[in-house]
Amino acid sequence: xxxxxxxxxxxxxxxxxxxxxxxxxxxxxxxxxxxxxxxxxxxxxxxxxxxxxxxxxxxxxxxxxxxxxxxxxxxxxxxxxxxxxxxxxxxxxxxxxxxxxxxxxxxxxxxxxxxxxxxxxxxxxxxxxxxxxxxxxxxxxxxxxxxxxxxxxxxxxxxxxxxxxxxxxxxxxxxxxxxxxxxxxxxxxxxxxxxxxxxxxx
Length: 202
Prior knowledge:
The protein is an alpha/beta fold.
């Protein structure tokens, strides 16, 4: 792709690093910004810089937050007997949008994937075990994507809790094999949550 300006080329290359944005889409975005007032670009740049510099992660559940403790963990209206284990913050958003869950969350920050060099120590598993020990919730709900890596992660955590009295469940398999939780429609996700089943790794 030939560019009329090195500045345009640099901007296109920067935009195309975003997931799902190819060179053509990036060029459209760049040309759109060039047609707008300079204030639009300044606002976009300021929002991105502010995001990177000021975003925090909840010290309890590891969800994205503006404060040290997120609004969910600090809420007095949440059911503290339930902790829903998810892979990342996108999954929290997906479940919250169903309006069917009122418990707490724990964001693992990924799943165990030995091929990619991701082990249990790279995830927020130890803090989950510590939370369970200190907070004594009644139920742990696995709401992980329906993949081999996610199943391995759930199996590992359940084994760590084998001496605990906590009830372990998993959302019903309304999510297709190999499917990502964030792409599930709200009705499917809602039904999966409401019809969760006891977690049985065997």
